[in-house]
Amino acid sequence: MKDQIKKLTEDYISATDALLENRKFGEGVFGMPDSARSSPVHMEYYNAVEAAVNEYLSAAPQVEETDEAVRFLLMASEEYPCSNLATWMLIAIQRQALPLIPLMSDEKRAELYTWFNAHVPRLQRLPAQRDIIKALKKR
Fold first, then answer.
1. What is this structure's pTM?
2. Which sign, positive or negative, has the C-alpha torsion 64, 65, 67, 72?
3. What number is the average pLDDT over the span 3-17?
4. Is the model more confident about 115 or about 41?
5. Does residue 12 contact residue 86 with C-beta atoms inside 8 Å?
6. Tens digit of pLDDT for each residue in 23-40?
7. Does residue 34 contact residue 27 with C-beta atoms inside 8 Å?
8. Spatial CB neighbours of 32, under 8 Å, sequence gap ≥ 6
9. DSSP string, 5-36
10. What is the DSSP letter of 43?
11. How far is CA 120 from the centre of its chain?
12. Are 97 and 115 in contact (CB under 8 A)?
């Protein structure tokens, strides 16, 4: 599953880079429409990741594979160098880790809790990130 999400992520980052390269001069300035921000590519990526997670959950999830997938979902925004346009969606897909967290090993869950708690400042956490912290903290 991690490989599938990784491929979706790499394709998404390539697509957003192409959108930014093809942006016209002045686009998005002074209230002008911004085709890169309003592109359907963002929701297509989010929905594809959601579908991959749901498909994985409907099969027989393995603990090790789940650990790797959750780690990827939570760390992708830190590990992939990309534009701000793509970074926000990489943060948004963290929510897709929520149904997978209870299936993780306790050891990996504790490791991710420590990492996530240190890398996502408490006062800057989005509601989904607060839910992730709570889910990682449960044992």
1. 0.84
2. positive
3. 90
4. 115
5. yes
6. 656 555 445 445 556 678
7. yes
8. 26
9. HHHHHHHHHHHHHHHHHTPPTTTTSTT---TT
10. H
11. 14
12. no
